[in-house]
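Module 6 notes. Inverse folding takes a fixed backbone as the condition and produces residue identities as the prediction. Think of it as a translation problem where the source language is geometry and the target language is the twenty amino acids. Below is one complete input and output pair. Work through it position by position during the lab.
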């Protein structure tokens, strides 16, 4: 579904499910996928069942992102703090990620999705590291949508890692400005997120894209991640479209 087609209900039966073509669609959307545990608890299921439902939900949300014209999606899959969860949950999540790559890589590749990883590879199980590296390599020339998976990711760790590389490369203080620093972050060449969505009602940044999110619009919804569908995504985009982005400036009347 293209935006142009979506304006014509004859051409596109899902025309009502499209963002306004008269306001800009966010280029880069980042998502804190929270609430899997609460979703499972509400159904008397183990937490891992919530993560499974959350993973299955990715397919429809990514498809909707692509249909709505979003070009970059960043998902917070596992933070540097998440290692503190019970080992069976951590191992289950790692396994789920491996299975997802095995199951979805070919379809994502066919859809023109370029997969990238944000975070430190070091603590990730070697078998998952290999699958991530293969997925990155396999999809590196795709151009329809960039999918950043933040896994073993922390915003502060990212800033420390960038600083270490800057020092290791011997940059002089006067060579360093904000644009140069940004290039040393995991997101290096990518534009900052325009919209950061957090599901399940908590008003927290949780160490996610703390540098890149400086001017992002935040959208928090009470909807739990496994229930966040294309309609909820559309609500988030419409919310974004109604906001005036000033980047600290005063806009003339
Ligand atoms: C937060 O819910 C969710 C996570 C820590 C994991 C999110 C990961 C996925 C949905 C899998 C991603 C998969 C791929 C392939 C990228 P929570 O457990 O904190 O929920 P709660 O706050 O209700 O307990």
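Target side of the pair, the amino acids:
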């Amino acid at each position: 579904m293209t935006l142009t087609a979506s304006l014509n209900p004859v051409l596109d039966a899902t025309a009502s499910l499209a963002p306004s073509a008269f306001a800009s669609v966010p280029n880069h959307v980042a998502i804190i996928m929270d609430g899997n545990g609460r979703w499972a608890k509400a159904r008397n299921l183990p937490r891992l069942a919530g993560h499974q439902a959350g993973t299955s939900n990715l397919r429809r949300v990514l498809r909707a992102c692509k249909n709505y014209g979003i070009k970059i999606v960043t998902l917070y899959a596992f933070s540097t703090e998440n290692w503190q969860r019970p080992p069976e949950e951590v191992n289950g999540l790692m396994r789920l990620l491996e299975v997802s790559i095995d199951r979805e890589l070919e379809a994502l590749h066919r859809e023109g999705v370029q997969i990238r990883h944000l975070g430190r590879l070091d603590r990730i199980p070697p078998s998952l590291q290999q699958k991530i590296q293969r997925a990155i390599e396999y999809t590196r020339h795709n151009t329809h949508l960039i999918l950043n998976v933040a896994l073993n990711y922390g915003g502060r760790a990212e800033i420390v890692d960038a600083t270490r590389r800057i020092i290791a490369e011997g940059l002089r203080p006067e060579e360093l400005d904000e644009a140069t620093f940004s290039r040393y972050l995991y997101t290096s060449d990518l534009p900052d997120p325009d919209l950061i969505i957090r599901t399940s009602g908590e008003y927290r940044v949780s160490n996610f894209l703390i540098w890149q999110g400086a001017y992002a619009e935040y959208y928090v919804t009470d909807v739990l991640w496994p229930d966040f569908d294309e309609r909820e995504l559309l609500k988030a985009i419409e919310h974004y479209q109604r906001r005036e982005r000033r980047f600290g400036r005063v806009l003339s009347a």
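Reference fact for the lab report: The chain has one domain: 8-154+187-242.
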